[in-house]
Amino acid sequence: MPELPEVETVRRGLEERLKNFHVKDIQVLTHRTISSQGSSDVFIQSIKGLVFGNWTRRGKYLICFLQSQDSCDHAGWLVVHLRMTGQFKWIQSAQIACSHTRVRFWNKEGNEIRFIDTRNFGQMWWISPESLPKEKINGLKKLGPEPFSRNFNPIYLKESLKNRKRSIKASLLDQSVVAGAGNIYADESLFEAGILPTKESRTLNEIEITKLCNSLTKVLKISIGKGGTTFKDFRDLEGINGNYGGQAWVYGRGNKSCKKCGSKIIKSKICGRGTHWCPSCQK
Ligand SMILES: [Zn+2]
């Protein structure tokens, strides 16, 4: 599943590739991908003729500022969530769409930005200029702070964990605690901080909380620098696979030896997600 670093990698690709992309035509092949009010027709009619402006990211949501072609007036937003397998592909010249193609956007030069999604859980919304994306999309409404923002710090994290009996792994996966940190980066940052994923959130002391804040941002930054990710299916716009995998301390390394101490890495399920940790390095 794409996590924050992958989504950020996609955002950078979209921003670079789609500068002044004037949407001449749109085709929606799978109607369930469009989650905004009205049918795919409303989505197509609203975005056709507009220009893609800046792309921002909030948690794992990609948000494009839409502009009218002549006046550069704000003309709403295009919001995208990749979910399990959604990906964008930049296509220079006409190419037949594969069966997993969901939405296609063309400019007048005949370039295409194609949304492909094998599992078909990805979502797109058109949000009118009168509203804000967070007013219309529930998942955006309840997102916690971005891990790189000032609002995410040891004081905030301590406060947010103080009444939680759940495991620290479950808290890190909770998007209302911190936006965008998913399974891979939760496991890796807990290893870096030396904390057992099963530990009750409310029992973490100040030193552990500070370590965890630092390790989470560190792990995410390294991964963004590598173009995203550990997971093998991820591709950026140009079809390139990120390579964080080689760097993982624990994720995907169940039964292998810990790179620090040699103990056997444990793999088990916590709140339904495969979780990896070293029984010696993490307390
Ligand atoms: Zn170890």
Give a short overview.
With 283 residues, the chain is of the alpha+beta class. Helix content is 27%, strand content 22%.
Describe this structure in words.
- By secondary structure, the protein is of the alpha+beta class.
- It has two domains: 4-141, N-terminal domain of MutM-like DNA repair proteins; 154-277, Helicase, Ruva Protein, domain 3 (Orthogonal Bundle).
- The protein is built from eight helices and ten strands.
- Strands 1-6-7-5 form a four-stranded antiparallel β-sheet, with helices on one face. The chain has a four-stranded antiparallel β-sheet with strand order 2-3-4-8.
- The longest helix is centred in the last third of the chain and has 20 residues, at 206-225.
- The chain is elongated, with a radius of gyration of 20 Å.
- The two termini are 28 Å apart.
- The model has no long low-confidence stretch (mean pLDDT 92).
- Residues 258, 260-261, 263, 278, 280-281 line the site of zinc ion.
